[in-house]
Design a protein that fits this description.
Blueprint: H1 2-11, H2 27-30, H3 34-41, E1 47-51, H4 57-70, E2 79-83, H5 86-100, E3 108-111, H6 112-123, E4 134-135, H7 138-151, H8 161-173, H9 194-207, E5 210-211, H10 213-226, H11 228-237, E6 240-243, H12 251-261, E7 267-271, H13 286-289, H14 291-294, E8 299-303, H15 311-321, E9 342-347, H16 350-366, E10 374-378, H17 384-394, E11 398-400, H18 409-422, H19 427-433, H20 443-456, H21 460-467, H22 475-494, H23 500-510, H24 513-518, H25 523-539, H26 545-554, E12 567-571, H27 572-575, E13 580-585, H28 596-602, H29 604-618, E14 621-630, E15 632-635, E16 638-641, H30 646-649, E17 656-659, H31 687-698, E18 724-727, E19 731-739, E20 742-747, E21 751-756, E22 760-762
Parallel strand pairs: 1-7, 1-8, 2-3, 2-6, 4-5, 6-7, 9-14, 9-17, 10-12, 10-13, 11-12, 13-14
Antiparallel strand pairs: 15-16, 18-19, 18-22, 19-20, 20-21
Helix pairs in contact: 3-4, 4-5, 6-10, 7-8, 10-11, 10-12, 15-29, 16-17, 18-19, 20-21, 28-29
Length: about 775
């Protein structure tokens, strides 16, 4: 095997005449700017590359990898390159192949989870698993926890399995095994039994020969700490490390990297502390902030030349993020044009926000900009509804980013069948489809098998086989189960003989699952069949079933893109790494953005992460940026007044084109910044306190419009042409005609509407 790898490496010289012994003479290096070149040339020792948005970090990472190999500093199989998404890994490998040829395939390149799965697969027996272990999905994790909690008489409505799953995931992200969890974190959940549930859950996973995502890295740490000889083996195998998006690493990823790189210390981390926005899922911005402390001899290089955005957009991003205290400090710049000013627009409410946004999209489209060059980026998912409804109404093509192919019901079912074929002891998969399609196997039967499995400490599959040899099961159920078990045994045998795509089709047909959806004549049924066909198509790119199933388990990283010709509609978190010619940022109001919840839960740290999120949103735009804020929002059916986000006051006023109508927001860009403070008694105040304090000091109302309340106004017959009225949804307007209690009104913001007089109020 080693001889083959050496051959591949040596033969790369014959791939193309463009391949040179010295990468520093290669066009891919010559075209870099000076800081980028410095990062590529610095091959020895710890290196931190602070790469701002749009500064070409992927290009630098790939070029540095190529330089390592061109210079013969190391061999491809001695390099570990880690990314956060499969998409990023694929892009980097493709670029590397273009530079160095097939030897790129010998580099250890993938996500944290995929690399950890590979290491665990090589050493599974050291943690009580076998090499064919299954990686369970989050859905399966929740189902297993529900079983355990019900067995322990825990109220799963009060303490949900999903919440327990999140709790366990948080412990694993910190590298904590059940016996290492602080008891103080156990008191508030499941009547103090959370750690016990965690312990039982881990034992159950081992019985199933399974691991969840958190286990992949946790088991790696266990192996490295308990078996120094194994760690030494990887120290000899891997001598150079490259890490992308280092600002998004959590505790266990940080520990894992430290252990692997502790001998060579040839670790290059690329990241942007200003784009650390995943604290809610365990990311620690402190990892990148303390890099120089971890590695005192480290070289730090800042990439500040932005190749994406106009000067005005970058100045806005720099101005906002400069208000954060916990950052290493850099300033994005560009040699390109200043570009157009940022449009800051006030609106009456969410409906008006959606209407104005759609008008701008239509204007841009009529001027030659494609829909897929535009994006609406929201802080919270619920904000998309009004945009979706508006886009549907007027025919703007759009796509909401976030839905995942492999999370669809029919795909999960099909994958569950395949998982049992590959690994019969995968209880969670078998339980999912044991009665799908309907076979007459009810909950009483599955409960009986469960009880038997737990009593004997065996898998659900083995328990079923043993019960089939008894008289415990009803004759009809017994026959159904025997047929199903025999089918799985036969499919498992055939998996070693026939192509995995042919096997999949065979399983879906013989199980009755395909005919189940073929008999469904609805549009939904047709769509599910098309998805199953696509699943089989997707499998063709993999050598075997195990490789495909592992890929599916690791692919849940949210890599989604808009199709050509569609406006992208997504959250700010989902937009990271993407770019568009035109970006719309709606909902810049206190409480919504920055999120009140984030501030309440995390204080200053939460506020700074919200500001980093604003920075990410701004830097998604290449040419045009629109920021909107509403005077009113409907929350839980009630209308509430809003004030502009503090982030608006942090934008450079000279770069704004302000459309602040009717004094909505009262000079929003000059609104006094609300400082987050905490007293010496550790009492912290949220924006509501400072908002009230500011208003009291100024003695002004931020809005001249009437305060909206959820009410029906008192009926009157005194309405006539020309009168000014107020409607709780449409705002201010002028009566143009009337017919009984029905009024035709031209509203200032909503246009002409026909409304009932009871719902308007005469403005004196």
């Amino acid at each position: 095997m080693i001889g083959i790898k050496l051959n591949i490496y040596n033969n790369k010289k014959n791939i193309s005449s463009t391949i040179m012994n010295d990468f520093l003479n290669h066009k891919a290096f010559i075209d870099l700017n000076e800081p980028q070149k410095e990062a590529v040339k610095t091959l020895q020792g710890p290196l931190l590359v602070l790469s701002g948005a749009g500064t070409g970090k992927t290009r630098v990472l790939t070029a540095r990898l190529a330089n390592l190999l061109y210079s013969k500093t190391t061999k491809p199989w001695n390099i570990l390159a880690v990314t956060f998404t499969n998409k990023a890994a694929k892009e980097m490998r493709t670029r590397l192949e273009n530079l160095i040829g097939p030897s790129a395939n010998s580099v250890w390149l993938g996500t944290f989870h995929s690399i950890a799965a590979r290491i665990l697969r090589e050493n599974a027996e050291l943690v009580g698993l076998t090499s064919n272990y299954t990686i369970i999905t989050p859905d399966d994790q929740v189902r297993l926890l529900k079983q355990i909690m019900l067995d322990d008489d825990i109220d799963t409505k009060k303490f949900t399995p999903k919440a327990m799953s999140n709790l366990i995931a948080g412990w694993k992200d910190k590298g904590q095994k059940p016996e290492e969890v602080d008891n103080s974190s156990n008191d508030y959940f499941a009547n103090g039994r959370a750690i016990s549930i965690y312990k039982t859950y881990q034992l159950r996973l081992k019985t199933l020969n399974s691991a969840d995502f958190g286990d992949l890295l946790l088991y790696n740490l266990n192996i490295f700490s308990d078996h120094p000889d194994v760690l030494a083996q990887y120290h000899s195998k891997l001598s150079y490390f490259l890490v992308d998006e280092y600002q998004d690493t959590n505790v266990i990823q940080y520990l894992w990297l430290r252990l692997l790189a502790e001998k060579s210390k040839n670790i290059c981390c690329v990241g942007d502390d200003d784009q650390s926005i995943y604290g809610w899922r365990g990311a620690q911005v402190g990892n990148i902030l303390k890099f120089e402390k971890d590695y005192p001899s480290a070289t730090v290089i800042k990439l500040e030349e932005n190749y994406r955005s106009t000067g005005r957009i970058l100045e806005a991003a720099n101005s906002v993020i400069s208000n954060n205290k916990e950052r290493l400090g850099k300033n994005l710049k560009t040699s390109s044009e200043q570009g157009e000013k940022i449009d800051l627009i006030s609106v009456w409410d969410g409906l008006e926000e959606a209407r104005k946004t759609s008008v701008e999209i239509e204007n841009l489209f009529s001027n030659g900009l494609r829909h897929d060059q535009m994006a609406v980026l929201v802080r919270a998912g619920h904000q998309t509804r009004q945009f979706e409804e508006r886009f549907v109404d007027i025919g703007i093509p759009y796509k909401v980013i976030g839905a995942k192919f492999y999370e669809r019901l029919e795909i999960r079912d099909a994958l569950a069948y395949l998982r049992v074929v590959q690994q019969p002891n995968d209880d969670l998969a078998l339980e999912r489809i044991i009665n799908v399609p309907k076979r007459g196997i009810g909950t009483s039967t599955t409960s009986m098998i469960h009880s038997y499995a737990r009593k004997k400490d065996i898998s659900f599959f083995l328990a079923t086989e043993e019960l089939l040899m008894t008289d415990e099961l009803r004759p009809n159920v017994k026959k159904t189960l025997r047929d199903l078990i025999n089918q799985f045994i036969e499919w498992n045998r055939e998996s070693k003989e026939i192509n995995h795509t042919d096997l999949t089709l065979k399983v879906l047909e013989e199980s009755g699952y395909l005919s189940h959806w073929q008999n469904d004549k609805s549009i939904e049924g047709e769509g599910r069949l098309e998805n199953l066909k696509e699943l089989i198509n997707a499998m063709s790119g993999f050598e075997n079933l195990q490789g495909f199933l592992e890929h599916i388990s690791l692919v849940m990283d949210g890599d989604s893109e808009a199709e050509a010709g569609e406006v992208s509609l997504m959250t700010l978190h989902a937009a990271k790494g993407l770019e568009f010619d035109v970006v719309f940022l709606p909902g810049w109001e206190e409480g919504l953005f920055p999120s009140q919840r984030s501030i309440d839960e995390l204080g200053l740290a939460g506020l700074e992460e919200e500001r980093r999120l604003a920075y990410v949103g701004i830097t998604r735009a290449r040419k045009r940026l629109f920021i909107t804020f509403a005077a009113n929002r409907q929350i839980h059916g009630l209308w509430q007044g809003s004030i502009p986000s503090r982030f608006i006051s942090e934008l450079p006023k000279q770069n704004l084109n302000e459309d602040i109508e009717g004094n909505l927001g009262a000079d929003a860009s000059s609104y006094s910044q609300i400082e987050f403070e905490a007293s010496s008694t550790n009492r912290s105040y949220g924006p509501g306190y400072f908002r009230a304090k500011q208003n009291k000091i100024n003695g002004i109302d931020l809005y001249k419009a009437p305060k909206i309340q959820n009410e029906v106004f008192k009926s009157t017959t005194d309405f006539h042409y020309g009168q000014r009225v107020f409607h709780q949804k449409f705002g201010m307007g002028k009566i143009i005609s009337s017919e009984g209690d029905k009024l035709n009104i031209i509203f200032d913001k909503a246009g002409e509407k026909r409304v009932i007089s009871n719902f308007v109020k005469l403005i004196e």
